[in-house]
Specification:
This protein has 15 helices and no strands. By secondary structure, it is an all-alpha fold. The chain has 2 domains: about 150 residues, no CATH class; about 180 residues, no CATH class. It is globular.
């Protein structure tokens, strides 16, 4: 039974969020050494405020796992799971705890590292708080999952709302913001904070434009899962889309508008935090380059069955190759041309095949 539930909840969760996990790993372990990580953990163990921030981040991750379980329990292809509540309560709770442990494994592993250092520095108060919070998160996750299982269609208060007819290009952004807000917030927060942080590094030392290109590369890779989310959204809600009498260029233009809207906050962040050493037109070219690269990732994944492990390996290889190319001085104009021509070329090829 546990193996069956793992295939429904745990494996799809990590596959769906592979891009986000990759970016977090690159940010956490690609730029910070083990010594710097230990210093951060030591600071958290000695500061209740810093430790509380860590707990808030863990809680946000828990909410993401709960939202995913609730979504899967109400999915049409998983309605048979409603019979799961017939299993004895003790066994059902043990299974939910096991599932939640698998979903919370990244923070449990990091908590284990914190506990190890807490024992070394004899921070028994912080250590006890970490263990207590992990137990609370597991119980809260299992409780929320079991509640949705027993209440698949809960009664809710519906307030009057204004009905607005959205154009097709806004379907996914509206769906993403309304039904997957945590994914939206994490993706855009990571991208925006990264670009703002890179811009604010310029007054502290002598940097050239390659630093902005490296930040742009990471921000673009932070959106690597968006193409899969759009494809999943269309397969679930827009099955008629492929039969519409639209040319390949019209379809590409609509996707370009959608991704331009998704990528637009980064333009505002770049303009707001533009270093005085960087020309205004360079920032515009930089944003257009990111727009084209995100479209390129969409064109590469559209209409294909992507194995998450291969996609993850491709994203990692892109980061390494792109970083080397940037360090060797490939200008933003070359990235702009490669991104847009690659997006158009691969899109044309995918539509024809």
């Amino acid at each position: 039974m546990l193996t069956f539930l793992n295939r429904i909840f745990i494996s799809p969760f990590y596959a769906k969020n592979a891009g986000t996990f990759l970016v977090i790993l690159l940010l956490a372990f690609g730029f910070l050494s083990a010594t710097e990580h230990k210093a951060l953990i030591t600071a958290a163990l000695g500061s209740p405020f810093f430790l509380a921030i860590v707990f808030v981040l863990w809680t946000l991750y828990l909410l993401k796992t709960i939202a995913f379980i609730w979504q899967e329990l109400t999915a049409p292809e998983h309605l048979f799971l409603q019979t799961f509540w017939l299993i004895p309560t003790s066994k059902r709770w043990a299974l939910w705890l096991a599932i939640q442990t698998g979903l919370l494994l990244p923070i449990i592993a990091y908590a284990g590292w914190m506990i190890q250092l807490g024992i070394h520095f004899q921070r028994w108060d912080s250590l006890s708080a970490i263990v207590l919070v992990i137990l609370i998160l597991l119980i809260m996750g299992a409780t929320a999952a079991d509640y949705r299982l027993r209440h698949p269609n809960p009664d809710s208060l519906r307030l009057p709302h204004l009905t607005v007819q959205l154009p097709y290009e806004l379907f996914f952004p509206a769906y993403w913001l309304r039904h997957e807000p945590l994914s939206f917030v994490l993706t855009k927060s990571f991208s925006g904070l990264l670009l703002a942080g890179v811009c604010r590094l310029y007054p502290t030392d002598d940097y050239d434009q390659r630093l902005l290109l490296i930040g742009l590369l990471l921000a673009v890779l932070g959106h690597s899962q968006v193409g899969g989310q759009i494809s999943e959204f269309e397969k679930k809600y827009l099955l008629f889309l492929e039969n519409l009498p639209l040319s390949w260029l019209q379809r590409f233009a609509r996707y370009a508008f959608t991704y331009g809207l998704i990528w637009f906050p980064e333009l505002l962040i770049l303009l707001r935090n533009c270093p005085s050493e960087i020309r205004f037109d360079y920032v515009i070219w930089l944003w257009l380059t990111g727009w084209g690269c995100i479209l390129l990732m969409h064109s590469l994944s559209y209409g294909r069955t992507i194995i998450p492990e291969r996609w993850l390996s491709g994203v990692l290889a892109t980061f390494i190759g792109g970083l080397l190319a940037i360090m060797f001085g490939v200008p933003v104009g070359a990235w702009l041309v490669l991104g847009w021509l690659g997006a158009i070329g691969f899109w044309y090829r995918s539509v024809l095949t």
